Each structure stands twice: as C-alpha cells, then as structure tokens.
Amino acid sequence: MGKELPRLTPLDPVWDRIKQDAHQAINDEPLIGGMVHAAVLHHATLESALCYRFALKLSSPEMDAQLLREISEEAYAADPNLGEAARADLVAIFERDPACHRLLQPLLFFKGFQAVQAYRVGHWLWTEGRRDLAYFIQARVSEVFGVDIHPNAVVGKGLMIDHAHSIVVGETAVVGNNVSMLHSVTLGGTGKEGHDRHPKVGDGVLIGAGAKVLGNIKVGNCSRVAAGSVVLQEVPPCKTVAGVPARIVGEAGCDQPALSMDQILGSVGTD
C-alpha cells in the first residue's frame, strides 16, 4: 500500500490576511480582544465570519440572531459566488480607500461592506423565490446601515462604497464589476413606470458623492459621474459627465477611474 497523502488546506490569502490583522489588532488594543475573537478568530472560514456578522448586525426582536445566521449559512453553502464576491469587495476597499489600512477593517467597521454582503444574501433569497424574507433583509439593512439596495438589483463583484450613507439602488438596477461609488448616490427611477426602469452601470465606473442616476439608462464602462450630478441620459464609455442635468465634459481621465478614485474634473481630457 502506498502512503496516504496529507490533506491539503485550501489557500485563502484574503482570510489568512484578515486573521493576521486580527492578531495585530488585539496586540495593539487588548480591549477589543473579545470582539475580534468572536468576529474573526473563532471562525474557520471567511464565510463563517460573514454569517456571524450578518446575524449580529441585523438581529432584532422580530428575528433573532440564530435564525438569521442559519439563513446566511444556507445562502453561502448554496452559492460559492457569495464568498468570492465578498473577497473581491474586501480587496477593492483595501486598494481604493486610503482610510482602509487592514483587510480586517471593512469586516468589522465599514457599513458599506457589511451592507453589501447583507444585500447579497437578500439577493440570493430573492432568486430562490423567498421574497418576503428578502424584503425583510432589505428593510433591516436600510434601518441599520442607511443603505437601501433592492434585493432584485444585480450587483457585480469588487464594489467599493465609501462612507455608504444614504445609498439607494432600485429594483431593476444593474451595477457591473469593479465599480466605486461614494455616499448619497441614487440609482433610481423617474416616476411610477413599471418593469425595467433603473440604471445599468457598466464595469469600472466611478460615481461621485451625491450623484443621482435616474431611469433605464446605460452608464458606459470606465466612465465617471461627477459629485452632485443628475444623470438623465446615457453616458458613453470612458467619458466624464457633470452637472444638473449632467453632460459630457471630457474623457474619463484614465483607463480605470473606479480604481484610481480620481474625482477632480481638472484631470479630464477634451472631447
């Protein structure tokens, strides 16, 4: 008989880094040791830690933490994309937000990251036909984090929402991969029309603070929407739009505006 090969532990550099950060955080500030152990070091996987955080933050007298944890565990077990998206979101925040110094921070402290992961569980419930429970998750996320993302909305991986106060994403909105947006962004409709009525945001888009994108319009890949703008018409790829109503004011200024986070209009090229 041949020798039995040892069982290999799957590589998970994001989770390994978070655990390293957790030990360093406890060393730096022992008073948060209990919280960090409960949130991170007691868990074998990032998915388990996310389920714990989801349940802890969204529990209420109407639905206790144990039930919410079971719901989220079911979602993560059924759809591996949830864990992949969470890792992409974590890396996006770490790379794009200068206030993020450790991968641990979004998991523990950043409501944008936590709200998006909760939305992802609600979206899974929606796709499974469990719509009342998905609406409950949406309502609790809005109450707790001030972020209102409809569970039917489609949100890609690598999303970074900085500060994340007063974010609204409508029912038929689509957000691509590697998008960055700041606080008070609305992806909304323009009235009482039904069916497909919300924006379709492409990959690599940067949306500035307070911008409103309204109606079933496309925002092209790698474009920029300036802070405070109201976008009512389609935005071509790789352009910058600004104003009320927004108009094209130049090129996007770089290949990947969502990654560079450059929001200065003076950096745009000419048409």
From TrEMBL:
<dbReference type="GO" id="GO:0009001">
    <property type="term" value="F:serine O-acetyltransferase activity"/>
</dbReference>
<keyword id="KW-0012">Acyltransferase</keyword>
<dbReference type="InterPro" id="IPR001451">
    <property type="entry name" value="Hexapep"/>
</dbReference>
<dbReference type="InterPro" id="IPR042122">
    <property type="entry name" value="Ser_AcTrfase_N_sf"/>
</dbReference>
<dbReference type="InterPro" id="IPR011004">
    <property type="entry name" value="Trimer_LpxA-like_sf"/>
</dbReference>
<dbReference type="Pfam" id="PF06426">
    <property type="entry name" value="SATase_N"/>
</dbReference>
<dbReference type="Pfam" id="PF00132">
    <property type="entry name" value="Hexapep"/>
</dbReference>
<dbReference type="InterPro" id="IPR045304">
    <property type="entry name" value="LbH_SAT"/>
</dbReference>
<dbReference type="GO" id="GO:0006535">
    <property type="term" value="P:cysteine biosynthetic process from serine"/>
</dbReference>
<dbReference type="InterPro" id="IPR010493">
    <property type="entry name" value="Ser_AcTrfase_N"/>
</dbReference>
<keyword id="KW-0808">Transferase</keyword>
<keyword id="KW-0677">Repeat</keyword>
<dbReference type="GO" id="GO:0005737">
    <property type="term" value="C:cytoplasm"/>
</dbReference>
<keyword id="KW-0028">Amino-acid biosynthesis</keyword>
<dbReference type="InterPro" id="IPR053376">
    <property type="entry name" value="Serine_acetyltransferase"/>
</dbReference>
<dbReference type="InterPro" id="IPR005881">
    <property type="entry name" value="Ser_O-AcTrfase"/>
</dbReference>
<dbReference type="InterPro" id="IPR018357">
    <property type="entry name" value="Hexapep_transf_CS"/>
</dbReference>
<feature type="domain" description="Serine acetyltransferase N-terminal">
    <location>
        <begin position="14"/>
        <end position="118"/>
    </location>
</feature>
<comment type="pathway">
    <text>Amino-acid biosynthesis; L-cysteine biosynthesis; L-cysteine from L-serine: step 1/2.</text>
</comment>
<comment type="similarity">
    <text>Belongs to the transferase hexapeptide repeat family.</text>
</comment>
<protein>
    <recommendedName>
        <fullName>Serine acetyltransferase</fullName>
        <ecNumber>2.3.1.30</ecNumber>
    </recommendedName>
</protein>
